[in-house]
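Internal tracking record. Fields below are filled automatically when a chain is submitted to the structure queue. Please do not edit lines marked as system-generated. If the sequence contains nonstandard residues, flag them in the REMARKS field before resubmitting.
Queue: standard
Priority: normal
Entity type: single polypeptide chain
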Amino acid sequence: PGATGPTGADGLPGEKGEQGATGPIVQLPNQITNGGMETFSDDIPTEWFGPALAQSAQVLASDDPDLVHSGNSAVMLMGTTGTTSTTLSQNPEIDVQGASFKCSFSAMAEGSPSLIATLIFYKGKTPISSSSTSMLIQVGSLPDRTMGYGQYFFMTDMVAPLEATNIQISFTANNLSEDGVTDVVYIDDVFIYI
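SYSTEM-GENERATED OUTPUT FOLLOWS
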């Protein structure tokens, strides 16, 4: 037999195969407990901590539906004599280490306070300092009751470190009035999800 001849030209591509089935979408539940601010103990939403007594209060839709984003109630953060800022926090345990977490919440204000929302991962009671993010809503930028609640989203690729055991969400309201009436912040519908 003689030598092998040169390789011929490539043939035409074959028909495209059928698209495979879409995999299931797994949505884990909200990592926050009482994110809807529906239950309270001593004027602090249950499962939340931080505000000193008289620096937070439950507002009811039955009293004023404009003060609640959804459900029956929301939390109001307010100042007191000598105090013009307060923080509301929760440290839920997380279900999935190594996953990306996102956060959303609804907020509005009376007057011109500011609000800082912060997410930080913890290992036990120790913050993992390299794993945090904050959102500042500047003085006068929160919508008021005539505009209704604004919805805010952390669109972050914040990945839970493998050693993380819980995540903290904190809301720090600043520039509150000492009278607890004219400059206040309302928060409702807090979600942390994967």
